[in-house]
């Protein structure tokens, strides 16, 4: 204030000098106390200028605060297109992905497999956040010439340690199944995924405890069959599902690595129109085992009682190396014409991949360090992959319960792959899978399968 | 063809055992961070206090605690907590703001004020008048603030807890004048706010307006803020005028239970607030010109606090709930009397 008054006094003196009246008149003005009123006037103007400056300053502060609070619209490869309210309580996200394959099984002789271009998946994803706690997700699939609803659920995220989800979504059993279809290392998931449901309808609680060291999931579901994508339950009883997963390595070298176990138990009763039983598939998605079917319930194998699963599982991320291992056991009571048995199928796989371009491996695909750019001379990320797995069908399924026309007792498969991530949105892959089969068929072992698939995947 | 790597049951047990061990190891003696969401003028107080509390807690428990601070107008801070700001503790300007957090978010119980001594207010303050050196406008009491030509700086009661105390103190003075009643108090406060050229969002902003921007003849300020200005800027620039009557301001503190539970900080958050009542905590408050509750410390620092006749919100306005409804709610008296830009 004192410095301001100093400058104002200076202005006053200057004004006085410039407009100084003749001396006699000046004396008259002095008598009318002109100098004090001039100083007061200057003081008043000075205050008004300061007030205006301060108001402008406060307005700028308010504008900056408002700008930081403003609702945002964003678009990027990872999260798609999104609209978000200023307080973050409301958001709408539009994402999606499509996978176009070229699939070949050379040397299949009779042409059981049609080499073709194939739209494996085409999935728009609509996600919303409503209020502070509630999320919603809707994901249909238009791939393979069908329209199938995969995800439709509501989720309350009350705390990292406690969330509730209800609707249709992945049953928390198989680790590889829980990995997004855009992030899996190979074009098709391995043998253990055969023994777990794909999607189920139910209610699940989940959470991360101790900062994510321990994750838990537990739920009650209608109870889908192995590989099943359920829309309607077959019986009154429900499946109980639980999963524990430990990631004890924090932010160290092994960040993202973990291990756990999942399981389910329930009862299922099939009928001639809906047997409640699955078939199992090779990497090329050919059925290599199915239960016997007929025209009546007396000639068709049906689910008839207890069904349970156990899935020990682990994921290792060590620098650019990622390894996924999983063991699966699926038990199912089945019946045919009054004969009931409990069948126990086993499967396992170990799958590894390595980024030649230095990206850190993780459960989700990493962003390429140097995305594809012709001008910059960069080409994205390159990943080599290999896996081995087996599936073993219970011997008691043969010869009575297995379809004699095309069922093998087991399969062993080895695969190699190259994945090229051009950027976060574009991925090209080439896989070669060799699968051999043992037992089952009366005419001898099923012929080995060589499967080559190339995929163009685009996500946003 | 059957292939089994390891018995599945054994695998599961190994997984669970290893997981439990790793979780326990991470949980022990982990450094912890607290967020204290406070009002505008407490920056210096809590910078000092946080440092000493961290040393105390480290010595007592071996745990490292880092306290982050957030400051702003008390009402605005309360809204931020309601909207999701993850405060482990709140130390706000008035109980009403914490009541609002309890009521609108349920993050702490409605009876939060009974959990600590002295209505959960470990220190008190009051409102005084800060004028420029020599008191060129001759300001002696609240009545002078409503005179024509006097420029008064006070923050916005809609966003600042301190501003509400200012407003209520002026109202209480007017009621105490001969023939004083609600009508005369309203007329007086209306004239006072006609003399306010700038409404800052918080008390610290108002101090900036008055002290650094050189605007106004008098700043209605927290006593601690006024005394701090004198200390920091020297007695050669400003003077404190003690009005004949003012209001007893009791800035309260509380643990935000649900946030603290989520962060696992309940124990350290509770200890943080309790430490404010300790002799060490009271000394720090007094050094920053807050009136201590502890008699021994209050006696020690008595000379720095002028004697003022203090009224309380409860006795004059019937409590914060009523005061807010009558004066500060949307469309209430303040909205009726204040005309921006006069």
What distinguishing features does this structure have?
heterodimer, A: about 450 residues, mainly beta, two-stranded antiparallel ribbon, elongated, disordered N terminus, B: about 350 residues, alpha/beta, 4-stranded mixed β-sheet, 16 helices, about 15% strand, globular
> Could you give the count of β-strands of chain A?
20
Strand content of chain A: over 45%
Task: Work out the largest interface and the residue count of each chain.
Answer: A-B, 45 and 34 residues
Please identify the oligomeric state. Answer: heterodimer
- Span between termini of chain A: 59 Å
Order of strands in the sheet with most strands of chain B: 2-1-3-10
Can you count the beta strands of chain B? 12
So how many helices of chain B? 16
Mean pLDDT of chain A: 86
Biggest sheet statistics of chain B: 4 strands, mixed
Indicate the mean pLDDT of chain B: 88
Global Rg of chain B: 24 Å
- Distance, first to last CA of chain B: 91 Å
The DSSP helix count of chain A reads: 4
What does this structure look like?
The complex is a heterodimer of chains A (460) and B (342). Helices cover 14% and strands 46% of the residues of chain A. By secondary structure, chain A is mainly β. In chain A, the strands form two sheets. Chain A has a 16-stranded antiparallel beta barrel. In chain A, helix 1 crosses helix 3. Chain A is elongated. The model of chain A is unreliable at 1-33 (pLDDT under 50). Chain B is of the alpha/beta class and 342 residues long. Helices cover 49% and strands 14% of the residues of chain B. Chain B contains 16 helices and twelve strands. Chain B has helices at 8-27, 43-61, 74-82, 95-105, 117-120, 161-176, 182-194, 203-212, 223-233, 257-263, 266-277, 279-287, 295-300, 313-317, 320-328, 333-337; strands at 32-39, 65-72, 89-91, 123-124, 127-132, 152-153, 218-222, 238-241, 245-247, 253-255, 291-292, 309-311. In chain B, helix 2 (43-61) packs across helix 11 (266-277) and helix 3 runs parallel beside helix 4. Chain A binds chain B through residues 1-2, 4, 47, 50-51, 53-55, 57-58, 87-89, 132, 159-161, 209-211, 213-214, 244, 246, 248-250, 259-261, 310, 312, 314, 327, 329, 346, 348, 390, 392, 409-410, 412, 438-439, and chain B through 1-6, 8, 11-12, 15-16, 18-19, 21-23, 26-27, 83-84, 132, 151, 197-198, 200-201, 205, 209, 213-216, 237, 262.
């Amino acid at each position: 204030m004192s410095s301001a008054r100093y400058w104002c006094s200076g202005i006053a003196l200057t004004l006085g000098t410039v407009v100084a009246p003749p001396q006699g008149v000046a004396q008259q003005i002095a008598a009318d106390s002109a100098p004090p009123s001039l100083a007061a006037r200057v003081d008043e103007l000075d205050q008004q200028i300061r007030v205006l400056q301060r108001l402008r300053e406060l307005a700028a502060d308010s504008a900056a605060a408002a700008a930081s609070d403003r609702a945002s619209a964003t678009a990027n490869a990872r999260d798609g297109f999104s609209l978000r309210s200023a307080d973050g309580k409301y958001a709408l996200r539009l994402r999606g992905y499509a996978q176009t394959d070229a699939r070949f099984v050379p040397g299949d002789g009779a042409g059981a497999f049609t080499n073709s271009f194939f739209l494996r998946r085409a999935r728009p994803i609509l996600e919303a956040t409503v209020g502070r706690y509630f999320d919603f997700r809707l994901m249909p699939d238009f791939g393979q010439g069908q329209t199938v609803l995969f995800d439709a659920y509501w989720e309350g995220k009350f705390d990292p340690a406690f969330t509730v989800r209800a609707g249709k979504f992945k049953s928390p059993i198989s680790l590889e199944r829980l990995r997004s279809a855009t992030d899996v290392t190979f074009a098709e998931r391995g043998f253990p995924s055969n023994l777990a449901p794909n999607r189920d309808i139910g209610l699940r609680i989940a959470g991360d405890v101790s900062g994510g060291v321990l994750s838990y999931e537990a739920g009650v579901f209608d109870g889908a069959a192995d590989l099943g994508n359920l829309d309607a339950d077959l019986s009154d009883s429900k499946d109980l599902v639980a999963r524990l997963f430990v990631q004890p390595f924090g932010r160290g070298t092994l960040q993202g690595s973990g291990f756990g176990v999942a399981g389910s138990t329930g009862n299922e009763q099939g009928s001639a129109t809906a047997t409640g039983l699955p078939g199992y598939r090779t990497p090329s998605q050919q059925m290599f085992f199915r239960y016997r079917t007929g025209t009546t319930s007396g000639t068709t194998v049906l689910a008839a009682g207890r069904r349970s699963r156990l899935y020990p599982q682990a994921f290792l991320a060590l620098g650019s190396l990622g390894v996924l291992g999983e063991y699966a056991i699926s038990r199912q009571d089945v019946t045919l014409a009054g004969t009931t048995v409990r069948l126990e199928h086993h499967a396992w796989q170990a799958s590894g991949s390595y980024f030649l371009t230095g990206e850190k491996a993780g459960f989700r695909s990493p962003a390429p360090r140097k995305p594809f750019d012709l001008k910059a001379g960069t080409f994205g990320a390159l990943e080599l992959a290999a896996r081995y797995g087996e599936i073993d069908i219970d011997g008691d399924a043969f010869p009575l319960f297995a379809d004699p026309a095309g069922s093998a007792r087991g399969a062993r498969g080895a695969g190699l792959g190259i994945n090229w991530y051009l950027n976060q949105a574009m991925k090209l892959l080439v896989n070669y899978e060799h699968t051999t089969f043992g037992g089952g068929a009366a005419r001898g072992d099923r012929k080995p399968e060589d499967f080559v698939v190339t995929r163009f995947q685009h996500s946003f | 063809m059957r292939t089994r790597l390891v018995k599945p049951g054994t695998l599961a047990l190994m997984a669970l055992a290893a997981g439990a061990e790793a979780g326990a190891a991470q949980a022990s003696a982990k450094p912890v961070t607290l967020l204290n969401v406070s009002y505008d003028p407490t920056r210096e107080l809590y910078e000092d206090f946080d440092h000493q509390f961290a040393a105390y807690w480290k010595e007592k428990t071996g745990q490292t605690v880092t306290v982050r601070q957030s400051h702003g107008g008390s009402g605005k801070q309360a809204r931020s907590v309601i909207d999701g700001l993850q405060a482990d503790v709140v130390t706000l300007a008035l109980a009403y703001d914490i009541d609002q957090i309890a009521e609108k978010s349920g993050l702490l119980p409605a009876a939060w004020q009974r959990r600590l001594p002295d209505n959960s207010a470990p220190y008190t303050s009051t409102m005084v008048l800060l004028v420029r050196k020599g008191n060129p406008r001759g300001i002696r009491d609240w009545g002078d603030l409503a005179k024509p030509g006097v420029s008064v700086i006070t923050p916005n009661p809609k966003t600042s807890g301190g501003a509400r105390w200012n407003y209520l103190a002026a109202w209480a003075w007017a009621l105490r004048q001969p023939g004083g009643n609600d009508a005369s108090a309203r007329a007086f406060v209306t004239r006072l706010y006609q003399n306010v050229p700038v409404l800052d969002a918080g008390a610290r902003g108002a101090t900036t307006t008055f002290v650094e921007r050189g605007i106004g003849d008098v700043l209605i300020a927290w006593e601690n803020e006024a005394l701090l200005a004198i200390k920091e800027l020297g007695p050669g620039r400003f003077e404190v005028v003690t009005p004949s009557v003012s209001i007893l301001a009791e800035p309260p503190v509380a643990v935000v239970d649900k946030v603290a539970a989520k962060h696992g900080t309940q124990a350290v958050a509770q200890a943080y607030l309790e430490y404010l009542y300790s002799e060490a905590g009271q000394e720090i408050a007094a050094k920053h010109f807050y009136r201590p509750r502890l008699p021994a410390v209050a006696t020690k620092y008595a000379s720095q606090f002028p004697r003022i006749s203090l009224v309380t919100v409860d006795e004059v306005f019937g409590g914060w709930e009523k005061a807010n409804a009558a004066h500060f709610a949307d469309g209430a008296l303040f909205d009726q009397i204040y005309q921006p830009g006069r």
